[in-house]
Structure formats: structure tokens, C-alpha cells
Amino acid sequence: MIRPVLAELQKRFAVNAAEAGDQDLHRRALLGVAMVSAETGHLNEVLDKCERHVAARPEIELLAVRRRIFGPED
């Protein structure tokens, strides 16, 4: 169930997406989405679209979202 969602995110939004944890839990998954952009605004726009896309899937209940943005100083 998760692989098609990851493939859609990668194809539609040109991001890297992977199952990043909770593989041992039944009916739960931790998805990671990553991208690189020179503009924070563009980065937030694409990540917002990814979040809405996943949340709109009827078979998925989005429990939490955590976002970390790294800059050149990190």
C-alpha cells in the first residue's frame, strides 16, 4: 500500500520519498520526503502539495507531520 504512494510522490512532485520507519508496526508507516531547492518558498510549496496529496488518499489517515529545513549553515 505504501509503495504506490511513494512512487506517486516521486513522479508527480520530483521529490525523494521513502518509508523511513515503523516497518514493524501493523497498519502504520513513517514516510520521509526530501528535496533540494534554492528557495525556501518553493520548498514549502512542494512539501505542502505532497502533504495534501497523501492526506487526500482515502486509505491513509495522516497522524502527524514534522518538517525540518536545513540551510547552508547546517
From TrEMBL:
InterPro entries membership: DUF503, TT1725-like_sf
SUPFAM superfamilies in alphabetical order: Hypothetical protein TT1725 (SSF103007)
Domain of life: Bacteria
Pfam family, one: DUF503
Matching PANTHER family: DUF503 DOMAIN-CONTAINING PROTEIN, HYPOTHETICAL CYTOSOLIC PROTEIN
Annotated protein name in UniProt: YlxP-like protein
Organism: Nocardia asteroides NBRC 15531
